[in-house]
Amino acid sequence: MTLDFELKTRDGRARRGRLTTAHGTIETPAFMPVGTAATVKAMMPEDVRATGAEILLCNTYHLMLRPGAERVAKLGGLHRFMNWPGPILTDSGGYQVMSLADLRKLSEEGVTFQSHLDGSKHLLTPERSIEIQNLLDATITMAFDECTPYPATEDQVATSMRLSMRWAKRSKEAFKQRPGYGLFGIVQGGIHPALREESAKALIEIGFDGYAVGGLAVGEGTELMLSTLEATEPFLPIDRPRYLMGVGKPSDLVGAVARGVDMFDCVLPTRSGRTAQAFTRAGTLNLRNARHAEHPGPLDPDCRCPACRSYSRAYLHHLTKAGEILGAMLLTRHNLTYYQDLMAEMRAAIEAGSFSAFVEAFRSASAAVVAEP
Length: 373
Description:
It is a single chain. This protein has helices at 45-50, 60-65, 69-74, 78-81, 94-100, 126-136, 154-174, 193-206, 222-232, 250-257, 268-274, 306-310, 313-322, 325-352, 355-367, and strands spanning 4-11, 14-21, 24-28, 30-32, 56-59, 88-91, 102-106, 111-114, 121-124, 140-142, 182-187, 210-213, 242-244, 263-265, 277-280, 283-286. It is an alpha/beta fold. Helix 10 runs parallel beside helix 14 and helix 13 (313-322) crosses helix 14 (325-352). The protein starts with a strand and ends in a 6-residue tail after the last helix.
């Protein structure tokens, strides 16, 4: 293993760890803001860091199409290109190929597809995905996989998962081992526990620096997502980081940490910031609502972000109604700060052995709040 992961303590299934990489240390449980195209939308890199974020997610599919992995490599790699010296995890591109590309054709070799930008034709294979991520200088590279659609029959899920396991082996063979860099495998298998077990065991046999759980939060609903995660967790190595891909709402993060997950990513806090939604300790606020028009107070009096320290809800309401860019910037900064503070609170609770009490308090507060339409 080329990444050092220290599991510091556990409280039930919840885990408190530290992942040391070539580009810095990540305290876990950790949330990764999404910088799909080498930028976290509406945020300067130093402002992202100020929220408490230690690692970002960028995307192979988008960066291979624009500006191109070879160009990024020529310019010194993704860290220098986007002015983010800390760790970067790159999604392999498999999900985006399936969800965004036109006229895609799947084979044992890989996926042939047309770009959603200009219609140009590309072949993305496990070897090419790994090569692109290496050119980008990703700290953590993801194995290339097929994101199984939902719903699908069990036979369809099994066929898809086994293809992803063959691709995982090819990804491992193509990966260039370097100190402080790592490769994560992705557990697939839909909502079927037996297939999840088979997938996890296949990945462990190949051997990865970390293990992601993919193919969830794709329409199956929260209850089924968490029950599938709970059934999968016992088959994941204790001494390696676990990453739940594309999740999620604050309540999803709490529920998944309680089931042994260490790392998360999701566009929700940044996308919500651009659509006038703010996550607070008193529920989710819609800043377009007229009731905020004369509200002199902050979004969240307990929040440390600039939006809460220096601006009123009335001003944020005005910015969103006027379509001003500053509104998206401030609300994105707030949402990312909220997410990072939530992760810090969970880390502290696990260390203190009080995670169950934290979960109960979080759920009680959530039950007492009715989010705005």
